[in-house]
Amino acid sequence: MTDRPTDPLETLFAQARQAPPDLPDDLFARILADAETVDQARHKTVAKSGWWRELGTMLGGWPSVAGLATAAVAGVWIGVAQPVGLNDFTLIDDSETATEFDLVDLMPGFDILAAEG
């Protein structure tokens, strides 16, 4: 193993790691008191605003929630009133030989679900 030349800055860092500075007790107490105050204020805000508002904040605010709602409405609309192009969705490539599995109705119409048995 080769000895590297000692860097003066590394020597200072080693001395600082050996004796970390102590935090004054009054400063530590003030930091904990401030953290407790902020935590209590946050819990009061969450309790007052409700979990719907908290969920909206976690999702990214009202623009993100509006995007999710739009996507959900579009999905329901496509599921109920499917476009004509989705009626004959092919699972196999456009080859000359057609089998019974080429055309499959993946999204049945609403009339099948509403039919009385």
Secondary structure topology:
Elements: H1 8-18, H2 25-49, H3 51-59, H4 62-80, H5 110-114
Architecture overview:
By secondary structure, the chain is mainly α. Helix content is 59%, strand content 0%. The protein has 5 helices and no strands. The chain has helices spanning 8-18, 25-49, 51-59, 62-80, 110-114. The model has no long low-confidence stretch (mean pLDDT 76).
First-last Cα distance: 86 Å
Q: How helical, in percent, are the residues?
A: 55-70%
**Over all CA atoms, what is the radius of gyration?**
33 Å
Shape: elongated
Give, in order, the helices and strands.
Answer: HHHHH
Report mean pLDDT, rounded to a whole number.
76
Which parts are unreliable, with pLDDT below 50 for 5 consecutive residues or more? none
Structure class: mainly alpha
The main sheet comes to:
none
Instruction: Give the strand content.
Output: under 5%
How many helix segments? 5
What's the count of strands?
0
Nutshell version of this structure?
By secondary structure, the protein is an all-alpha fold. The protein contains 5 helices and no strands.
Primary descriptors:
117 residues; mainly alpha; 59% helix; 0% strand
